[in-house]
Each structure stands twice: as C-alpha cells, then as structure tokens.
Design goal:
Organism: Calorimonas adulescens
Pfam families: DUF1667
Distance between the termini: 55 Å
Protein name: DUF1667 domain-containing protein
Order of helices and strands: EEEHEEEEHEEE
CATH topology of the largest domain: CPE0013-like fold
Largest sheet: 5 strands, mixed
Helix content: 10-25%
Number of helices: 2
CATH superfamily of the largest domain: CPE0013-like
Radius of gyration: 18 Å
Strand order of the largest sheet: 8-5-6-10-9
Number of domains: 2
Structural class: alpha+beta
C-alpha cells in the first residue's frame, strides 16, 4: 500500500490529507476537514492539473512583458512544455485583459489569455 500526503487547496482550511492507495485505487482519505477533500485527493493523485501563470514578450508597449494565464487548469505534466511554447512567442500591443494570446495550448483545449491591458 502506498501512502501520500497532499495539502488540499479547495477551501481556506488547507487540510493535510493522508491518502492511502492500493492497487491503483484510493482506499482511504483522512484528515479532511470538509467533504471536498476526498474528491480533491482523487484528482490530485490521478489527474493533477494546474493553472499556468507566466509572461510573454510584447512589442510596442510600455513594458517588455505581458502577464498571461491559462483560462482553465492544464495537466500538471504539461506545465513546463507549455512554458517553453509561450517563451517562444511575442505579441504586439495593444492587448486587453482576457484577450486570447495562444489558442489550445498543447492540444489541451485551453486558451492562454492576457491578465492585463497593455498599450
């Protein structure tokens, strides 16, 4: 049996979940202070995702970098590859908050959007 400790981030309690995994299945989740813990543990163990927040280069703007993020979480295993893709692009001002900067990053179905207006 495998045991993992995961900090749940779904509510302000930040519970330190004790997750027991046997034969590829979660058999126990302990230390959850609310009902969200077991679902979070399942997602984090088998399909971890993260929202990527980074910057891309921008031309004709007051600042050289534009802050961006994925509209939804992407698989955790694709974060560094997505960062490499975004490091290779450059956009041109003006840009508005929410504007799609990169569509369907790494075929995840998730767009990367600007998080700031930039002129």
């Amino acid at each position: 049996m495998q045991e993992r400790y995961i900090t749940c981030i779904l509510c302000p309690q930040g519970c330190n979940l004790k997750v027991q995994i046997d034969d590829g299945k979660i058999v126990s989740v302990k230390n959850n202070g609310c009902e969200k813990g077991p679902g979070y543990a399942n997602d984090e163990v088998f399909h971890p995702t993260r929202v990527l927040t980074t910057t891309v280069r921008i031309r004709k703007a007051k600042l050289p970098l534009l802050p961006v993020r994925t509209k939804r979480p992407i698989p955790k295993g694709k974060i560094f590859e997505a960062m490499k893709v975004l490091a290779g692009i450059e956009v041109e001002a003006p840009v508005t908050v929410g504007q799609v900067i990169y569509s369907n990053i790494l075929d995840t179905g998730v767009d990367v959007v600007a998080t700031r207006d930039m002129n």
